[in-house]
Amino acid sequence: MTMRQTDTTAPLAQYAHAPILLLIIGFLMLQPLSTDLYLASLPSLATGFGAPAATVQLTLSMFVIGFGGAQLVIGPLSDRFGRRPVLIWGLSLYVVASLLCAAAPNIALLIVARFLQALGCCSAVIVARAIVRDAYAPADSVRVIARASSWLSLAPLTGPILGSYLQVAFGWRAAFVALSILSALLLAAVVLRLPETNVHKNPKATEFSGLAANYRLVLGSREFWAHALPGALSFGSIFAFISGSSLVLIRVLGVPTEWFGYCFAVGVSGYLTGTIVCRRLLPLFGAAVTLRMGSTMSLAAGAVFLAAVGAGLAHWGVVVLAMFMTMGAHGINFPVSQSGSVSPFPQQAGTAAGLMGALYMSVAFGVGTAVGATFDGTLYPLALISCALGLAVFASVRVTATPIARATP
């Protein structure tokens, strides 16, 4: 048999002609690039627009709000009308919103444009999660997500580096021009190469009764919460660094802007490492034990960061190490969390993905707001938030685990 025939992560036969995995990777990359590509520009935005750090932080927070809220709508829309039309409209909006960001004359318009950009980005990410459920066997979905996540890590690895150089060479607007080009390429790929994967369209998915029934089914499932809650808290732990690392590294520790991207990339390489570890752990221990291991690493990462800061180690290496450990833990937690949240709901895959994503973004919004509000020119607030989230991830896995998962050693 050929390698293609023995590849357990190959898509179902009817989608073998399409680059499903490549498109999924591209869609998922849009989210980290939408945040990471302009992280090095946050201090410059504050200076250029004469805005305080908390106001500039709204360009991240409003993106999170838009992304989180839209998932409650986009998931059901894709269940009713299909994945392709939702993607086409969403990516079109993203292209226009990215151009508006690049042309924004003031911080207020930039914040509004970022909100619109989030709506478009959301369509790509939610549909990507649903396509995994559509186009792959349920037993393969966690491995598909882990495989895609390994490639996905290239976005947060290279994005901040590219963004740092774009900031130094051209200013903050260049990052949004780059995002508009990338999204236009993805839109063209969808139009030309992506087949419709939703073969179970639900005409009642967007009706109030059908929507309420789907929400009750998903939200009433203990299996959903056992995966979605730890995953959301784990995402919150990495969002603390996404929203706070540039302020801490550049303003507090004096890292040059052009070097920020490399510091961030080293930290984010932990995510790549985590996804690779996850792929090795799954066949050996199963999903439940793998998630317990990842949550333990989340706790260790936060505790080490707080202990180092408490010991007076105010050095960029401490921040990068803490970010590496936190990102590594998320690389283990995320594939298990995402697959476990969506796989039990073949008829409501879009709805489940949307609810999961809304939970992720709600936690991220709270974390981003806390990071911006508590910034005091030291490392303590970020370290305290990181440690609290690590503890929350660890506890949530133990509290919400299903009886079968609890019995697993």
Task: Looking at this protein, list some descriptive labels.
Growth Hormone, Chain: A; mainly alpha; single chain; MFS; transmembrane; MFS_dom; disordered N terminus
Describe the 3D structure:
- The chain is an all-alpha fold and 409 residues long.
- It has a single domain, classed as MFS general substrate transporter like domains (Growth Hormone, Chain: A, Up-down Bundle), CATH 1.20.1250.20.
- Helix content is 81%, strand content 0%.
- The protein starts with a helix and ends with a helix.
- Belongs to the major facilitator superfamily. Bcr/CmlA family.
- Its main location: membrane.
- It comes from Massilia violaceinigra.
- One of its GO terms (cellular component) is plasma membrane.
Give a concise summary:
The protein has 409 residues and is mainly alpha-helical.
Principal-axis shape equals globular
Characterize the biggest β-sheet: none
Structural class given helices, strands, pairing? mainly alpha
CATH class: Mainly Alpha
Order of helices and strands: HHHHHHHHHHHHHHHHH
Q: Helix tally?
A: 17
Question: Could you tell me the radius of gyration in angstroms?
Answer: 20 Å
Query: What is the share of helical residues?
Result: over 70%
* Range of strand content: under 5%
List the SSEs and their pairings.
Elements: H1 3-6, H2 20-36, H3 42-49, H4 53-56, H5 58-81, H6 83-103, H7 107-135, H8 141-152, H9 154-170, H10 173-193, H11 208-219, H12 222-252, H13 257-310, H14 316-342, H15 349-374, H16 380-400, H17 403-407
Helix pairs in contact: 2-7, 2-8, 2-9, 2-10, 5-6, 5-7, 5-15, 6-7, 6-10, 7-15, 8-13, 8-14, 9-13, 12-13, 12-14, 12-15, 12-16, 13-14, 13-16
